[in-house]
Amino acid sequence: MNWKKSRLLFRQALDLIPGGVNSPVRAFKAVGGNPLFIEQAKGSKIYDVDGNEYIDYILSWGPMILGHSHPSVLKALHSAIDKGTSFGAPTPLEVELARRVIDVYPSCEKIRMVNSGTEATLSAIRVARGFTGRDKIVKFEGCYHGHADGLLVKAGSGATTFGVPDSPGVPKSYAKDTLTVPFNDIKAFKSLLRREGKSIACVILEPVVGNIGCVLPKEGFLDALRQETRRYGIVLIFDEVMTGFRVAYGGAQAYYGIRPDMTCLGKVIGGGMPVGAYGGRRDIMSLVAPEGPVYQAGTLSGNPVAMTAGIETLKILAKEETYKKLEKTMRSLEKGLRDAARRAGVRTRFYRAGTMFCTYFTETEVVDYATAKTADTNRFARFFTGMLTRGINIAPSQFEAGFISLSHSEKDIEKTVRAAYEAFKEC
Ligand code: KE4
């Protein structure tokens, strides 16, 4: 493949933008080589500046569930833009998007639009702290909730669960209020709550952990979190920025039948434009300014262009046949990838929840961060390159989820499976 223009652009970008990218994972650091600079995308395909075509399984890290440049979304955006792009005042569109989300996520009795998943989670945590008057929060190792200081925290050394900063620049004082436990470890969770329960404002988690690949909750894990948090008056926050409308139309909370106190959303609800949202029980959300005293604001929050992309996307997701088609495509890809690895003689672990998935290069069952880290990242890097050179664009990290869209055809799946068989053999 010719990547001349991408290489030149990357050299220019490195001089102007930290790491040459506006978000770290895009830099290909985990897999080596030069990131692709993209010219355009349509349906299931993405095209780089050198004119190479790829079947896309990144889909902008989840949002493009309809496929890229969906005709109805683009048509609605063109007419929205002609009316102006941002007014800094309420519009009918944000009422419509709020209604559409609340109708599908009963855990959100009220919802506030923001501009990213990071804003959604940091705001939800602030509201939970305001609601409970408590400072500590609990997260799970490996879960990523955006880059707010208090969330860039990893498990403390040894048995202690007190967090330590996971990035320079995060004050120790922030990290000490963030407690971490291993995902799926309900015993550790219960003993933490026995010790600290009364000082914990909220527990936040990805109900399916997309930020370590695709790690599913064990039978009874989410239910135990629900029971235990209720017992201690702790706000249970489902970060469904990735899983929302992706694991199922109603997200992981519908799929697993658990009702959190608050939910964070993003990605799909923006249809490719910058949108995040947080919502929850009326008694909690009534604390949010200007209704209540907990402050949160945003110049472009709920802007009409982003709302339009979200509304058009949700209109199509609301159609009965949509998730039947997504499930059919996902089943076909899952079967193909599992067979390809087996035929190539490569031992992998494949997991999926709805239409997000991950192939781990390990024989260990992946149930949390520690077991995900047993994956052979060098073999993954070779697999990644084998797929890319065959025109298949997968996430440039073993610890990211893959996604399909409504636009992925049976032909796309067949081409992907053939490429995977060759790439598995090579690595
Ligand atoms: P943003 O601030 O990137 O919109 O959302 C943060 C976020 C919050 N919660 C979950 C569960 C998320 O997956 C994310 C963002 N996901 C990453 C993918 N691993 C976005 C890609 C990137 O960081 O470039």
Structure write-up:
It is a single chain. The protein is α/β, with parallel strands linked by helices and 427 residues long. The protein has 2 domains: 173 residues, Aspartate Aminotransferase, domain 1; 247 residues, Type I PLP-dependent aspartate aminotransferase-like (Major domain) (Aspartate Aminotransferase, domain 2, 3-Layer(aba) Sandwich), CATH 3.40.640. The protein contains 14 helices and 16 strands. The strands form 4 sheets. Strands 4-12-11-10-9-5-8 form a 7-stranded mixed sheet, with helices on both faces. A 4-stranded mixed sheet has the order 1-2-3-15. Strands 13-14-16 form a 3-stranded antiparallel sheet, covered by helices on one side. α8 links the parallel β10 and β11. α2 packs antiparallel against α10. It starts with a helix and ends with a helix. The mean pLDDT is 96. The structure holds ligand KE4. Ligand KE4 binds next to α4.
Report the total helices.
14
CATH architecture of the largest domain: 3-Layer(aba) Sandwich
Helix content: 25-40%
The end-to-end span amounts to 19 Å
Cofactors and ligands: ligand KE4
What is the CATH C level class of the largest domain, in words?
A: Alpha Beta
Name the CATH homologous superfamily of the largest domain.
Type I PLP-dependent aspartate aminotransferase-like (Major domain)
What's the gyration radius in Å? 21 Å
Beta-strand portion reads 15-25%
In CATH terms, what is the fold-level topology of the largest domain? Aspartate Aminotransferase, domain 2
Number of domains: 2
Based on helices, strands and strand pairing, what is the structural class? alpha/beta
